[in-house]
Amino acid sequence: MPLIHPQQKPTKKALETELDGDTHAKLQAYRRYSGASTSEIVAGALNVLFEKDAEFGPWYETHKEELAKHPSGSQSGHPNRPSPEGRKK
Fold first, then answer.
1. CA proximity to 6, closest of 49, 37, 47
2. How far is residue 62's CA from residue 43's CA, in Å, rounded to a whole number?
3. Which residues lie closer than 8 Å to 67 by C-beta, 6 or more apart?
């Protein structure tokens, strides 16, 4: 049974990204398997990521207001962002 099911979301924002060939092929295969759209699968996968990343939740709560003011700004290298070296794997 698929872990991600089709859902109705009232507000949507466009996202453009590039995937490597293997990831794209698996995404298309999962789309056929689950019956969900590509958007639904990506949104579902991101929500799983947000739930599973224990450090992201507190970071997000701390920066939520700042992010609302600048929603599309690049935060790469942001001083308050945990460094990859300091994160648990």
1. 37
2. 22
3. 60, 75
d(CA 83, CA 8): 35
pTM for the whole structure: 0.67
User: Which amino acid makes up residue 70?
Assistant: H
Q: Are 12 and 39 in contact (CB under 8 A)?
A: yes
Sign for the CA dihedral angle at 68, 70, 76, 82 comes to negative
Task: Parse the chain into domains and list their residue ranges.
Answer: 21-68
pLDDT tens-digit series, residues 27-75: 999 999 999 999 999 999 999 999 999 999 999 999 999 998 887 765 5
| One-character DSSP codes across the chain | --SS-----S----------HHHHHHHHHHHHHH---HHHHHHHHHHHHHHH-TTHHHHHHHHHHHHHHSTTS--TT-TTSPPGGGS--
